[in-house]
Protein: 6-phospho-beta-glucosidase
Amino acid sequence: LKQIERFPDDFLFGASTSSFQVEGAAELDGRGKAIHDLAEKKIGITDFSTASDHYHRMEEDVELFHELGLNMYRFSMSWTRIMPDGKNINEEGLAFYNRLVDKLVSYGIEPLVTIYHFEYPYQLIEEFGGWLSPKGIDAYEAFAKVLFTHFGDRVKYWLTINEQDHVVKISERLGLPKESTGLAFERKLQQANYHMCVATAKVIQLAHQMMPDSKIGPAVNPMPAIPSSGNPKDLIAAMEFNELSHHYILDLHCRGKFSPIHWKYMQDRDICPKVKTEDLQLMAANPPDFIGINYYLNQTVAHSEQETIALRGQGVFCEEEAGIYQLAENELIPQTDWGWNICPEGLSISLMDVCNRYQLPMLITENGLGAYDEVVDGKIHDTYRIEYLQNHLAQIKHCLSMGFPILGYCAWSAIDLVSGREGMDKRYGFIYVNRTNEELRDLNRLKKDSFYWYQNVIQERGQSI
Ligand code: BG6
Structure:
């Protein structure tokens, strides 16, 4: 196939963040508590509530994004900044995002807004259990309506739920104790997953009613499996892994159908959610406009002879113990300092798999390298990050050359932010934020070498990739 020389003119080069990881001001201007606020103590960061202080430095940050040359900026709107108790509007929250959206638009940067990035209002968790209850669907729809009403005139691209496939694997993200285990717990996760699928369909329908030109879709994190050997049994294990890692959600989003393996898995264990025919019809009638792909790593998977099921505490489809497949070592694939496989080809595997199965355009909504960065004489020579991003962009260019519809690429992250589990030790940004887990310092911004590299990639539309 003839390889393209440059990325298409309308391809969106972007970068991403999420509100609780970047904004700080966690208790300011009326913001209410959200579920992840309670995770603060666990990741060893002394001041989570300041994060990267983007709330106070938004103007400066967007100016840097403009200098970087971003065509798109993905961020989430904090539910509890806009509705502190999950129900009533806080004008100061709306005002912050109005300023942010206006500033982006004034620089010609397309906003991509994530409606839900792990931030369920704590009050609603206490009142009815958040996503575990059907009431969670209505609350989320009401929040989305507020966003569409106030920002729909300037925001065209929307993401419904970030990484539903991982929300249901981490019990604390649903407000359940970490040590939860057993089939009753597993049934709750499957029910929460189903509620999120119904909520997604409702909000896609609402977006299209309120903003006919909008483009809206979910963001999943597929971690595609490759077989550990040429043994066909390992290929089947890898296919089963993919069914239970992301197809089971996307089949509902895009077709209103349960993947057969998923349904059988739940039936065998008597953990099926309560399903209504009209919900499935709603999903089938309201598929997404595109699918967001978060890609960091892949998995190598082998056949498992194990027949018994031993469910672990950490969520659905416990890979090593489900008795269908097991995770395997792969000496061909290097790893990050945190043991994440580095496999750029895995991105192509995901894009080809998802696009062929659902026949929808795709948008890469996260991809990046978490690393320790060192400041030497005021500079950060993050060649490791440049290499990682370059290799992943090369895969996207190849997929575009094969004819796959890819709308854009948002690297994770635009600026250093608090990593989900490692705080500020594990950095992802093009822009360095001067703080550590232990010390707040002056929070000044420094452009890393990757900043200048990405700036050039955008300017030349990826010609040298
Ligand atoms: C994605 C999340 O799963 O991975 C981000 O959407 C997260 O919020 C990113 O930061 C990287 O994970 P981590 O644990 O290294 O921060």
In short: The chain has 14 helices and 13 strands. Confidence is low (pLDDT under 50) at residues 307-316, 318-322. The pocket of 6-O-phosphono-beta-D-glucopyranose is lined by residues 18, 21, 162-163, 166, 221, 294, 366, 370, 412, 419-421, 426 (CB under 6 Å).
